[in-house]
Amino acid sequence: MQGELASGRMAGTNSKLATSRLHEMVHAGDAAASASVKMEAQDLNFYYGSTHALKGVSMVLRERRISALIGPSGCGKSTFLRTLNRMNELIASTRLTGTVLLDNHSIYDRAQDVVAIRQRVGMVFQRPNPFPMSIFNNVAYGPRVLRMKKEPLPQVVERSLRQAALWDEVKDRLQTSALGLSGGQQQRLCIARVLAVEPEVILMDEPASALDPISTTKIEDLLRELRNRYTIVIVTHNLQQAARISDDTGFFLTGELVEFGPTEWLFVKPRDSRTEDYITGRFG
Questions:
Q1: End-to-end CA distance of the chain
Q2: DSSP secondary structure of 155-223
Q3: Strands 51-62 and 37-48
Q4: CA-based torsion, 148, 152, 154, 159: positive or negative
Q5: Digit-coded pLDDT (tens) for 141-179
Q6: How many Å apart are CA 44 and CA 42, to the nearest integer?
Q7: Which of 81, 158, 204, 245 is close enough to 124 for a disulfide, judged by CB 3.0 to 4.6 Å?
Q8: pTM > 0.70: yes or no
Q9: Class of 15-129+188-279 in CATH
């Protein structure tokens, strides 16, 4: 009798947990649907010579959300990321069909200024790449080149470094070489450099993959803060990281977007068996 009562209580508890998780997932879906669309890829195909790297990818990226792109190496994640600010155009013998919209305007329209596009859609790369100059000049570089004069450069530098959670660590050595910073500090400096030109979207290609766990935690905490002001798209091989920090997740496989949606849904109840196989470690 006691065993039956215990089993009944356990079943009731499991039912409540399942109902709670379902409510969380529904809330996540509602939050995604209510956010306005910032960027949208429409039937995107990309080729390196004769290699078909992206195959009919369509994705909606909503404002002030973090979207994580996951999948095994060579599946097209980074290629897709670079199509979002036309960075792939720097690679010879490539071509693209389909389009990418930013605020409902195609970034591939011939009338678009590619420099202006890359200002609005900034990129942070896998490995920190500070310029061989002072910390101050690293952050001031973009505003100087773009002749941005809305506020004095010292204010721009301080604001950007504060947003990148680096100001307190470097405020007394702004004129020293950026190459003397630690790896984690260099990556946050690169984020500050992007922020200095006032982007609307920030693309990140595995920004923490070369960092130690403490620096990785600082980058993740920073991303949570930046989400309140920017739309962020991050490529990551770290499934735990995607689950921790992203609002939406897309799973790529052999150039195809298998599925994309709220992270809670994708990790708990994926629609495609290939997604489930990947996130449970059966391949990749």
A1: 48
A2: HHHHHHHHHTT-HHHHTT-TTSBGGGS-HHHHHHHHHHHHHTT--SEEEEESTTTTS-HHHHHHHHHHH
A3: antiparallel
A4: negative
A5: 999 999 998 889 999 999 999 999 999 999 999 999 999
A6: 5
A7: 204
A8: yes
A9: alpha beta
